[in-house]
Design goal:
Elements (H helix, E strand, L loop, with lengths): L5 E5 L2 H5 L8 E9 L10 E11 L1 H13 L2 E11 L5 E17 L7 E9 L17 E4 L5 E10 L12 E8 L1 H9 L6 E7 L5 E15 L7 E7 L7 H8 L16 H13 L13 E5 L6 H13 L9 H7 L10 E6 L1 H7 L11 H4 L5 H9 L4 E5 L1
Parallel strand pairs: 13-14, 14-15
Antiparallel strand pairs: 1-2, 1-10, 2-9, 3-6, 3-8, 4-5, 4-7, 5-6, 7-8, 9-12, 10-11, 11-12
């Protein structure tokens, strides 16, 4: 058997939920996996009708453009859900909304039925909102809360496609252990629930990979006594970028800085997840006023900044936030550095060139446009409240 990359453990959902420790039993060491990685599908774009619409402002202007050019972009469109008194009781958001056309409203010729296409945001609690009883409908708002008019109702006019069928996970060249070995020898068919972990060359877990139902096995072509196992997954699959990141962590937590720089943006984002999962707990913060040196040679995107910052504070493979909210938490202490801290940002010109500034209107915030921060915005966030004293080098 070659060096295993994965370990298969027994899984108990209730014990996991209750935080019980030590319940997992090792079921197998596995050389490799097939059909493990998969990127999530792109957000589904749907077509909707704003029924009985009274457009105003930029929506009215967009209708004029769409009639002349065929379509018009609206950016983010927010529908405020109104109760019977006209008070807002909720919101629903449509990202990258594209106006496709309009026509007179059959029920009121002074109004328009407007057809739009867009992506509902994941944070919304429903596929699309239902108008409450006796409600006048919805108030329409633009990316910055500017009024776009009203509509009386909303209808989704495109069909949701069926979920694609995903292949099962196959674990190859597995050496069964314990209860799994006994179950296979007894010819049992109900093999139970299992968890797959990626491990390093010493056998230490690096990160959880998948969870599912162990449902079949066959003798493996990789050697006598080995088996190939099949799992039906109920968890999300790791993204394709995880494969490269785990290979870079194959010897355990890195001892060399900037290995993350080999990864593209998706890989850097997953690197941050891996660094968080492998952070050391219970360590002492270095005292306030400590100087940290940020290697800026490879900061070409925002995830790269956080990869470099984690290593500046906590060494190779270190973690100190993966986004602004997480960085806020880290700057409260107990993540390796007590604020205020001094950050010397070497080769800062790389990030200055790669991170902007973005050409947008003065009122357009990153949150409103769903875009990453540019260089100046990132500096402003770091230095806010005198938590970080940044020196550009």
């Amino acid at each position: 058997m070659g060096a295993p990359k994965y370990v298969l453990l027994s899984y108990d959902r209730q014990a996991e939920f209750e935080g019980e420790e030590g319940y997992e039993e090792t079921w197998a060491w596995c050389e490799d996996a097939e059909d493990l990685f998969a990127d999530p599908p792109p957000p589904l774009r749907q077509v909707y009708d704003l029924l009985g619409c009274a457009p105003e402002g930029q929506l009215s202007e967009a209708l004029t453009r769409a009639r002349a050019e065929g379509t018009a972009s609206l950016g983010t469109l927010t529908l405020e859900i109104l109760d019977k008194t006209g008070a807002a009781v909720g919101e629903w958001h449509l990202d990258q909304a594209l106006l496709l056309g309009d026509r007179p409203c059959a029920r009121d010729l002074t109004l328009r039925d407007v057809t739009i296409e867009g992506t509902a945001l994941d944070r919304d609690p429903y596929e699309y909102p239902r108008r409450p009883p006796l409600s006048p409908g919805y108030r329409l708002l633009g990316p910055h809360g500017e009024p776009h008019g009203t509509c009386r109702d909303l209808a989704c006019t495109s069909e949701v496609p069926d979920e694609p069928t995903e292949p099962p996970l196959r674990l190859l060249g597995c050496s069964p252990q314990g209860a799994l070995r006994r179950a296979l020898d007894a010819g049992e068919e109900d093999l139970g629930h299992a968890k797959v972990l990626r491990i390093d060359t010493s056998g230490r877990p690096v990160q959880s990979a998948a969870e599912g139902e162990l449902r079949a096995w066959i003798p493996s072509a990789r050697g006598p006594g080995l088996v190939d196992l099949t799992l039906d997954l109920w968890s999300e699959r790791p993204p394709v970028a995880a494969g490269q990141v785990w290979d870079l962590w194959a010897e355990g937590r890195p001892t060399e800085s900037n290995l993350w720089a080999q990864c593209d943006q998706a890989g850097r984002e997953f690197w941050l997840r891996t660094a968080l999962d492998n952070r050391e707990h219970g360590g002492q913060d270095r005292p306030p006023g400590t100087t940290y040196h940020l290697d800026g040679r490879h900061i070409t995107d925002l995830p790269g900044f956080f990869c470099a910052l984690g290593e500046a504070v906590n060494g190779p493979g270190g973690y100190f936030g993966w986004g602004l909210d997480a960085l806020d938490d880290c700057l409260m202490g107990r993540w390796g550095a007590a604020p205020p801290l001094r950050l010397v940002w070497h080769d800062s010109e790389v990030a200055r060139r790669q991170l902007g500034p973005t050409q947008v209107t003065p009122q357009a915030t990153p949150q409103a446009l769903h875009r990453p921060l540019d260089f100046q915005e990132l500096l402003a966030f770091l230095t806010e409240g005198d938590r970080v004293d940044v020196h550009l080098a």
